[in-house]
Every structure is written in C-alpha cells, then in structure tokens.
Amino acid sequence: MTDRPLPSTNSAALPAEMSPAISLREIHYQPAGSPFFLSLPTFEVLAGQRVAVTGRSGSGKTTLLNLLSGQLSPNAGELRVLGQSLDSMTLREQERFRLRRIGIVFQEFRLIEYLTVADNLRLVGILDQWAATAAENERIQEIAEQLGIEGYLKRRPNRLSQGERQRVAIGRALFANPDLILADEPTGNLDQKTADVTLNYLFQATEACNASLVVVTHDLSQLQRFDTGYSMDQLVSH
User: Fold this and answer.
1) What is the model's pTM?
2) Mean pLDDT of all residues in the chain?
3) What DSSP string describes 22-62?
4) Which of the residues 2, 63, 107, 131 has an alpha carbon 20 to 30 A from that of 75?
C-alpha cells in the first residue's frame, strides 16, 4: 500500500486561470463497424467552470463524457484534459490519471456489489493502493453525511434504492477531491427535493477544490444553476 498522493501539479502547465481544464479540437469518433459517428469541432471548459450538456437520447452525450475521461479514444483530433494529452499516455498512465484527477459519475452507477457502501466510496483509494488512514475514514463520513447515506455505510448496494445507489456513485466520484468531475445524469433517479440537495453538494464540493464540472442532464429546470450550457446540436458538426 502507498500513502494517498498529494494533488498533482504540472509545472509546465499554464496557471489554472489561464489554462482550460478541457480543450477539444476537431474530434472525430466512430466505433469500428458502427454507423454512429460523432464530430466535435470545438469544446472548451475553463478551470472551475460548471457546464451542462443536454441532448436527445443517442445524440452522443455519454460518448462525449467517455472521450473526455479517456475511456474512449478519438479516431482523429486534439483532446487535452487538465493540461494533458490522453493519447500520449499508456493505458496504465491513463488509469492512474483518471483515478487521481477525474471523478466520474456513471449513469448506470457501476457500484461494486460485493463491497460495502463505505468501500465503494473509497474505491479510488483501493484501486490506487492508498494506505488506509483516519483522514480517509473521516472523508467517507463527511461525504455520507452530506449525501444523506451515513446510515448505509455497512450495507451492500443490493440493499439500496436506485436513488441511494446514485448518491453513493456521486460520493465515490468526489472522494479524492478531483480536478475534474464528469457526471452522466447525476440526479436522474432522484425526486426533485433530493436532486436539489444533491446538486447543491456537487456544486459545493467542486467549488471547494476548484474543480471543473461537466454534467450531462435531461433536467432542463436545473440549467440556470450552471455557468454555461450547451446542447449536443450546438457542439456537433452536421
């Protein structure tokens, strides 16, 4: 086990206020053997900015998030995330970069069913082989209390409702204080009151660590809370 790493720095990068968290130029993506094609001329997210992306089902919203996180590789174009070119990294380097600097909220949650809620929240530390510390346990408790899941820390995901599972997924993404959070429908399974509370915490957490936030959402009622918003129709070239 290793100690939890300090927040990464890149001395060669521009200061945060001058360097975009995401810079995308002329990205083209098409899975092998698939008719689906995504062409994105430009997309930029500044450090600390909160951006919402909307669009109909099948328009490429989730594909965009997967490209930004390095889970998919574009066929062509330039993509820099937090000052780094993901294409220049090995698969292991990409994995470590995601673990340490990007928090991801998956639409289908992707919780580990045989782990407790507490261990799902600390999954980044488990995968990156951090040594368990009292501070880590305090972080788990803090997140759980903010998201209203403190009573479920010893439960496994199969004993949670869809809304509770969603809040665990959000907490896991925030656990390591990432520089960038990518969230796919983070309030999609929550009632309006719980969605408001959860989004408040997501905003507070990103502001506390000056993280950038990109949220894919169908909830148009929340758009005014973001710094800026785009529809996929605005982003793609036709």
Assistant:
1) 0.87
2) 87
3) EEEEEEEE--TT-S--EEEEEEEE-TT-EEEEE--TTSSHH
4) 107
Q: b vs e for 126-158, b when ≥16 Cβ sit within 10 Å of the residue's Cβ? A: eebebeeeeebeebbeebbebbebeebbeebbe
Report whether 86 contacts 98 (CB < 8 A).
no
Query: Number of structural domains, the chain?
Result: 1
Q: Give residues with Cβ within 8 angstroms of 194, minimum separation 6.
A: 148, 163, 167, 187
- Going from the C-alpha of 154 to that of each of 113, 140, 144, 187, the distances in angstroms are 12, 12, 12, 23
Tell whether 10 is covered by a domain. no
CATH number, domain at 214? 3.40.50.300
180 token code pair: 């960038």
Neighbours of 115 (CB within 10 A): 15
Phi and psi, residue 26, nearest 5°:
50, 50
Which tokens is 49 given?
Answer: 């900015």
| Cβ proximity of 18 and 216 under 8 Å | no
DSSP H/E element including 2:
none
Q: What gap in Å lies between CA 187 and CA 69, rounded to an integer?
A: 20
* Token pair for 175: 């656990």
Helices (H), 9-90: 61-68
| Residues contacting residue 45 through CB under 8 Å, at least 6 positions apart | 20, 21, 22, 51, 212, 214
State pLDDT tens for residues 45-66.
Answer: 999 999 999 988 888 999 999 9
Q: 151 — phi, psi (to 5°)? A: -85, 0
- Domain membership flag for residue 82: no
Do the strands 228-231 and 50-54 form a parallel or antiparallel pair, or are they unpaired? parallel
- Placement of tokens 């983070």 in the chain: 186
Mapped onto helix, strand or coil, the DSSP state of residue 181 is strand
Q: Provide the β-strand partners of residue 229.
A: 52
